[in-house]
Amino acid sequence: MELRLEADLHTHTMVSDHAYSTLKENCASAAEAGLKGLAVTDHSPGTPDGAHILHFINLSVLPRRICGVSVLQGVEANITDRTGALDMEERHLKRLEWIVASMHNRCMKDKSFEDCTSAYNAVAENPYVDVIGHCTTNDFPFDCEPVLKKFNEYGKIIEINESSLVYKKGAVENSIEILRLCKKYEIPIVIDSDSHFCDLIGKTPNALRLIADTDFPQWLILNADWERVREYVLKKRPWIAEL
Ligand SMILES: [Zn+2]
Ligand SMILES: [Zn+2]
User: What angle in degrees, to the nearest 10, is found between the helix axes of 144-153 and 171-185?
Assistant: First the structure.
């Protein structure tokens, strides 16, 4: 059976200047693509044009469903150095509903193999982080097998990122290796668009091709089933009234 995703859990809006759609446009596009859920994960304040902290503090004014799509109020936080520090304080992280932690060139100070390995090992232990975003580029090499095992030990979800597959060197080869290891150790993944424009929401053709090519098991893809995403979020964050 053809794999269809039910949620896109890494998406951006024009609160960053380098993204071009509103949240409502993203949700309308998600509904059109047949998605049940969407996580709005704008760039944290450490990004040069990242959202202001007030953007994240005020997310709770949003309705739970927009255009019929359930919206998780999240962030893509920057991993900033070898200690695995994030550019958002704990008091803000703990109020959000979906947290992707990623390395970006402009925000990550330490970039060697040892630095990235050390950073990821620390991020694994951060209780607020749900997903390790696009750990598939050549920019941030790390000791893949032991780090993935540690992510799994601490319940982190690994992202296969469509945007990286299109734009980043090494992402195809690295994603194939990560899928091989996630299959071997039964580590859950999510497949996300990392959309910066509404038409791209829920569109992950390159990632889906790799899933087919690697014969990756569907039961390990969390966002192939919105119910499983919902259960995961509600279990981790029992203060959420409805989803
Ligand atoms: Zn971006
Ligand atoms: Zn990113």
Answer: 50
State what percent of residues in the chain have pLDDT above 70.
Answer: 100
Ligand nearest to the CA of 168: 2
Section 100-121 average pLDDT: 97
154 CA to middle of ligand 2, Å? Answer: 21
The domain made up of 7-236 has a fold known as TIM Barrel (3.20.20)
**Alpha carbon of 103 to ligand 2 centroid (Å):** 7
Q: Are 201 and 167 in contact (CB under 8 A)?
A: no
Closest of 76, 82, 128 to residue 102, by C-alpha = 76
Tokens 């799509």 belong to which residue? 69
Handedness of CA 53, 26, 189, 17 (dihedral sign): negative
Judge whether residue 1 has pLDDT over 90: no
Q: Residue 82 is encoded by which pair of tokens?
A: 């070898």
- What is the CA(163)–ligand 2 centre distance, in A? 9
- Identify how many contiguous H helices and E strands the chain contains and give both numbers: 9, 8
Distance in Å, CA 158 to ligand 2 centroid: 13
CA–CA dist 223, 232 (Å, integer): 11
